[in-house]
Amino acid sequence: MRICIIAEGCYPFVAGGVSSWLQSVIQSMPEHEFVIWAIGAQEKSRGHFAYQPPDNVVKVVDVYLDSVIHETLRKNPRRYRLTKPQYEAIREMLSSQNPDWNEIFALFRNDRHKGLEFLLNRDFFAILQEICTERYPFVGFTDLFWTIRSMFLPLLYLLGGAPPKADLYHSVSAGYAGVLGSMAAQYYRKPYVLTEHGIYTREREEEILRSDWVPSHFKDLWINMFYMFTRCAYHYADQVTSLFQRASYIQQEIGCDADKCAVIRNGVHFERFENIPLKEPDGFVDIGAVVRIVPIKDIKTMLYAFSRVSAEYPNVRLHIMGPTDEDEEYYAECLQLRQDLELTNVAFTGRVNVQEYLQRIDFTLLTSISEGQPLAVLEAMAAGRPAVTTNVGNCRELLEGDDDNLGTAGFCVPVMHQGELADAMLTLCQNAELRRQMGEIGRRRVKALYGHEQMIDAYTKIYETAGSIAAGKWQA
Amino acid sequence: MAGIGFELKKLFVGRGAISKVRAYAYAGIVTTGTMVLAIAMLLGVQLLTRAFGATDVETETMVVLMVYAMLGSLILSSLLQMLLSRYVADMLYQKLNERILPSLFGGALLLILPGGIAYGAFLWRADQIDILDRVINLFLFAEILVVWLQMAYITAAKDYRRILLGFLAGVATVFSMSVALLAAGMSPVTAIMLSLFCGYGIMLVSFTRVLLTIFPVGKGSLFAFVEWIGKYPDLVFTGFFSMAGAFVHIIVMWFSPLGEVVAGQFRHAPLHDSAAFFAYLVAVPTSINFVISVEVNFYQKYKEYFSTITTGGTLAEIRLARDNMKNMLSQEIFNLTQIQVFVMVLFTVLMRYVLESLSFTRDMIGMFQIMSIGYSAYAIGNCMLLLQLYFNDRAGALMTCLLYFTLNLAGTLYIRNLDSLYYGLGMTVAGFVMYAFGLARLLRYVRSIDYHVYCGQPVLAVQKTGPLARLAARLSTRAGAVGK
Helix, strand, or coil here: B125? Predict the structure, then answer.
């Protein structure tokens, strides 16, 4: 079977949880061929792959959101009128409601220029005026015009691309990837699977609320657009998976049909980690954080909290392992903070082989503001290392278990809480026996619930289910 | 999950600048004024030379030389006039004042060289005319050409008093010098050619001085504006057809039964020419009216509309401003038409007596009256075209003047062999069609002006590099190299 993976803003450009997961899933399914339809943010990342795609990846189709600004329109853009259903669908789309996506897919498919020309179209302008009259009568029209144009420009551009051919489409997030997956599956009449590691819509929402480039009175417009994308993917997907039960409930809350929802836990290659020996005592406690250096991981809180630990327990070292090039400005700020806090015992190692590096680590640390079900924590647990994490995503269940009666494998503390982070770290620093006990609990939990084989089997089954659902749907 | 929404801000393009198109509409009006002035001089010196007892042959020679130099340079300059006005407006908008005057020199060079050779060849073959007169006439041609081009720049100066003084000084020179030279017994043709040369020379110098007070001599390529030909090729055609359309029937009639050879390939159709030139004067009130009324009333609403758009007006505010502008536009067009009709009636009736005293025949007066109606329609039609340019409907402007030019040409070709009763009818029909089409197109365009303003803004900032843009870039790098 040929499976098309639709990845947005991660694989194969950016190293991280979703990307590593994807890499290992593809490697573990040598019986299938994979096509990667990768959506990058900027053209400058073209060719800069963080991963070498495995041999069973037959093609990587990369598109970039900012490519659109290098497109040139023909001198005389085509003028076309919309049919009534098209008009209605576009009206719904531009006001971020519930469009009939089939109309929209059919209108823009396989024609990059048509989408761009649409932004010059009389019907587009008429719809915009309608929306403005109904919903934004007191907002500057020029601002609204440019906002809507720039909101939908990337989408219209992406919709115009030719979808790669495959037997099954699998988006690894909602958002643009979800819309493209829906379009491709509809076009080729193939099954479509959506996997969400985090909850895309919520992440976008937070990002937009924090951003300073969207005027506050247009923030709801942007947020609603991403919700609309997500609903599109939920609607067309034959199966929707999430990593843990709570995430699945959120999907249903946003509008996903409960029948489609399935939970597939992340899996790690337990056998690669279980035999990593505990660190030989050397008078120091070594803490490891396997993270990309980006704001969402909240490295700054990590440094502040660690400086408290360091003040009380001097023989401690922090190793921050992960790529530093994704947000170089943030990385520079972190380096500056390390200097300001006079933390000589913090190392930014860059990307490392985690299996090897874990040998030097006593326990791990995660201070993220948002997570799904972090692989880094699972891998460390498999190696018998306890963890201190913030209470995000599925972290609490990973550490404390969900009715498995195994016990606690670390400490879960509130987000951005330096004090509790520091206390938890100190507790582990000062008590080697506790580290060993918690590490053992973690190892057993991963072995029982988070095996790689289990995960691959589950996805294989999901593909089969989606295939038969889709077959039924297209025959009817 | 790397933030994609975050990256979108780079696509959040700035608001496009609202056009600065009115400048070149304005230049069109100034040109009309200059043309009226030229015709007045043509008629004036004719009377003058007759008073000094010039022979018919001398008068004819003088008139054709004047007409050819004036019409030839006018039509030639019309190729670049609108385009250069646009270039000037763009440069002013970008505050690149130092690039303005070089384009005047570049444009003049570009036209004078081939134009001078062609016109020189024309003169060369008219060997019945004294060589001295022909040489002066060639220089006069080049000089007037530059004056026409200056009209594209001078409107930016806004120094109307000095501009007017320049015109007056030029005209005064022409007449006083003619009188002096004729009284001194110089051959009438030479005397008039020399006086015109000096009169236009004085205009040229005084306009240049006005220009130098507001623009620096400048630097960079003389031919940087060539890129604009690639950007706005339609302006070359609109400039040409709107100007040539007004006179093409005169040229066609030189080849009618009324036409005759004066010398070499110099032809004229004296009966028709005089009638046409007198009739052209009927356009004066509309030109004045356009400047006074449109500038004051309509432009105010026009400005309000665009500023509502750029300063964050709501849709309701924009629509209100648009409707105000639309109403003012209709009102102004109605006024313009009303006054023109009124003037036309008076002019056709009353001028008859003046023309009779100038020994116009009944046929000529008939042609004059028909063409007065025709030029009235043309005057308002031309205003429709200029208003189309205000709204940046360049396609509409081009269609309007192309329609006029074609109909005038075809109509005149058709009627030139009919009874003289019909002479002038071709351009009159063309004028009415131009008016009707121009008005309909204008009103239709303005009805959806919101759409045109917004969706006329490019989705993407496209830098078009056509062959002309590359040529201009090459010329400017070479100019830079020479500068070093």
Answer: helix
Contact A226 B5 (CB under 8 A): yes
Distance CA A257, CA A260 (A): 6
CB contact (8 A) between residue A41 and residue B7 = yes
Q: Is A287 helix (H, G, I), strand (E, B) or coil?
A: strand
Residue pLDDT, tens place only, A50-95: 888 889 999 999 888 877 777 776 667 777 888 999 999 999 999 9
Are A65 and B4 inside 8 Å of each other by CB?
yes
Residues A307, A324: Cα–Cα separation, whole Å: 21
- Short-list A294, A326, A282, CA closest to A45: A326
Average pLDDT over residues B26-46: 76
Q: Burial-class residue B106 by CB neighbours within 10 Å (0-12, 13-18, 19+).
A: buried
User: Does the beta-carbon distance from A121 to B9 stay under 8 Å?
Assistant: no
Q: What is the mean pLDDT of residues A321-334?
A: 91
Chain B residue closest to A326 (CA)?
Answer: B2
Q: How high is the mean pLDDT of chain A? A: 90
CA closest to A113 among chain B residues: B459
Give the burial string for B5-25 (b: 16+ CB within 10 Å, else e): bbbbeebebeeeeeeebbbbb
**Chain centre distance of CA A453:** 22
- Whether the predicted pLDDT of B12 surpasses 80: no
B234 lies within 8 A of chain A by CB: no
Q: How much is the pLDDT for B476?
A: 53
Distance in angstroms (rounded) separating the CA atoms of residues B209 and B207: 5
Confidence band, pLDDT 50/70/90 cuts, at residue B3:
very low
Mean of pLDDT values over B390-407: 92
DSSP H helices, B281-393, are 284-289, 299-310, 315-357, 362-390
Strands (E), A309-454: 316-321, 346-350, 363-366, 387-390, 410-413
